[in-house]
UniProtKB/TrEMBL annotation:
InterPro entries: Fe-S_Maturation_MIP18, FSCA_dom_sf, MIP18-like. This is DUF59 domain-containing protein. It holds the Pfam family FeS_assembly_P. It comes from Chitinophaga lutea. It comes from the Bacteria. Residues 6-78 form the MIP18 family-like domain.
């Protein structure tokens, strides 16, 4: 099965972690949208577990850098939103299990 650019973006996002939580941002449900546009420009709309997150800048920079490192990506646009606010319900089953919420 051929790996799509979106698959590669998801895989890259699974390597980004919030330093306070031992689960990647993708499985935490912090990534709301991934869009592949013209020239393979990648738009990621994401949130954080809390608006006052002290590592917000470094997490967003890491997401941007990991997307740009994927061969064939034309550009990265990482945007932060708090609408809707993140809740534990947005986590994958694996993340809930790992953090003891199941």
């Amino acid at each position: 099965m051929e790996t799509t650019l979106r698959d590669q973006v998801e895989e890259a996002l699974r390597t980004v972690h919030d330093p306070e939580i031992p689960v990647n941002i993708y499985d935490l449900g912090l990534v709301y949208k991934i869009e592949i546009g013209e020239n393979n420009n990648v738009l990621v709309i994401m949130t954080l577990t809390a608006p006052g997150c002290p590592v917000a800048g470094s997490i967003m920079e890491e997401v941007n850098n990991k997307i740009l490192a994927i061969p064939g990506v034309g550009g990265a646009d990482v945007r932060l939103t708090f609408d809707p606010p993140w809740t534990r319900d947005m986590m994958s089953e694996e993340a809930k299990l790992e953090l003891g919420f199941l």
